């Protein structure tokens, strides 16, 4: 609770059933109340400006703007706002990008019924949260790479490039992507070229498969 009142939560996920379930989990506790719901990242950013909230809980993979982009925007406008990221995937890139975006925790949807409430309470207290299996997964992956003699890159794509991939996979044109991300069309085209080169890919179809495989886009 904040000041004796329930913590006011902004909940963002593009699946209404998932939002309903998460809301039930949170509002089964007396110290939380969901005061706003968003179905995509752009709506979440807009609601964060319009509604008084004490905590934002954002899905990583959402239409229009990713949860990572939304988290960065919210952190820039309200640095003191605690943010938790939700994900279906044990993905180290998204985990580290979430921290860089200003999130204080990363919760898997598959164990949200166990971890979400404690993660939210920790975030409100200013404490970071990462579920134990994530640490195990990250350590195992790094050890496997080291054992194979492979380099351990910080990340494959930048956060902005990941957003561009997601929007391309959703069928957005370069002009639409530019408007959503508030960048020029030329910058979008430059990102597209860099992405294709980095991933050794040729077209939208391959980028869409990559977006689904890495959790940027849900199949």
Helix-strand blueprint:
Blueprint: E1 7-12, H1 16-27, E2 32-38, H2 41-50, E3 55-59, H3 67-77, E4 83-87, H4 92-100, E5 105-108, H5 112-124, E6 129-130, H6 132-147, H7 159-169, H8 174-181, H9 185-199, H10 204-213
Parallel strand pairs: 1-2, 1-3, 3-4, 4-5, 5-6
Tell me what the structure shows.
Residues 8-124 form the Response regulatory domain. InterPro entries: CheY-like_superfamily, NreC/VraR/RcsB-like_REC, Sig_transdc_resp-reg_C-effctor, Sig_transdc_resp-reg_receiver, Tscrpt_reg_LuxR_C, WalR-like. The protein is of the alpha/beta class and 219 residues long. The chain folds into 2 domains: 7-136, Response regulator (Rossmann fold), CATH 3.40.50; 159-213, Orthogonal Bundle (Arc Repressor Mutant, subunit A). It has helices at residues 16-27, 41-50, 67-77, 92-100, 112-124, 132-147, 159-169, 174-181, 185-199, 204-213; strands spanning 7-12, 32-38, 55-59, 83-87, 105-108, 129-130. It has a 6-stranded parallel sheet, with helices on both faces. The chain is globular, with a radius of gyration of 18 Å. The protein starts with 6 loop residues before the first strand and ends in a 6-residue tail after the last helix. The mean pLDDT is 84.
